[in-house]
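Fold sample X.
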Amino acid sequence: MPVVHGPTVDAQTRCIHYRTPLDVIALRFACCGEYYPCHLCHEETVGHASRPWPASSRHERAVLCGVCWSELTIAQYLQAEDCPYCAAAFNPGCALHHELYFE
């Protein structure tokens, strides 16, 4: 099972920054390969800058559903409104931050 780093507040990967019922994903950062609930958790926890996954990395498993703990590819996540494995709804507002994670 993947480890989610940073200030999580529950077992579904919610964090101190994003903790609505729909905030149930963690992202594996391209810079370090570690999962964090959000970009702010990454910034507050590590001593290096984050960088987005290159567009050529859509096949990488880099998104973790905090409900069923399935790892989604970037392509699966970018096309989904909910988890393709357990149907947990994802926060549509996360799309506002996609450029922080994905080119």
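Fold sample Y, listed below.
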Amino acid sequence: MFEHKVTDIFFDLDHTLWDFERNSALTFAKILDHHKVEVDLNGFLEIYAPINLQMWALYRKNGISKSELRYQRLKKTFDVLNISISDDMINALAHDYIAHLSSFTHLLPNTLPVLEYLFPKYRLHIITNGFQEVQNKKLKRSSIHHFFEKIIDSEMAGVKKPNPHIFKLALDLAEVRPENSLMVGDSLEADILGAKAMGMQVLHYNFHNDPNHGECRMINDLIEIKSIL
């Protein structure tokens, strides 16, 4: 289905291979209980999830810093819930969230079978906007680190997807031409349009149930990759 021969596949990590929503929920259950913050977990997560996506969208556009992202997504959530909480507690929760997030290791359905299928046939890599100190731990503790030759993150690149520089850096490090590369990710803006602008081939893993678009093929389960490649 791809116009050019694919030799290298670049994956996004969160919401593509690593089950961010599930692992994040388990992390919040642990740290909210530890700090004795009395809040209904499901109600908290329902408010937090869209706020977190909004904050990440701002972060991608350099609208906020890493520290502001970590603070504001919690502050805004507690504000919506009308829960009074000190800045010291928010900062403690923000710190512990990052410290414990990678200790949970759930992967999205069919991640392992697909990586095991692709590994002998293609060179596999990661391009992520996540924070360097967390992403490497996620890969290692989830026991998928060994599948990937190059792991490129936004802190290493100095820019975030969809900025073309992070894709160029990934291609240069992997020593591969863009037309022989495939980017697989969940974000239309960051992964698909960003990689496509660099001349890479793209495959949209539709984790968020985005509406159909004409940019590329969309899949709803990673296992579909086995019938494509």
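Sample Y note: Residues 41-60 form the longest helix (20 residues).
Also: The chain has a mean pLDDT of 96.
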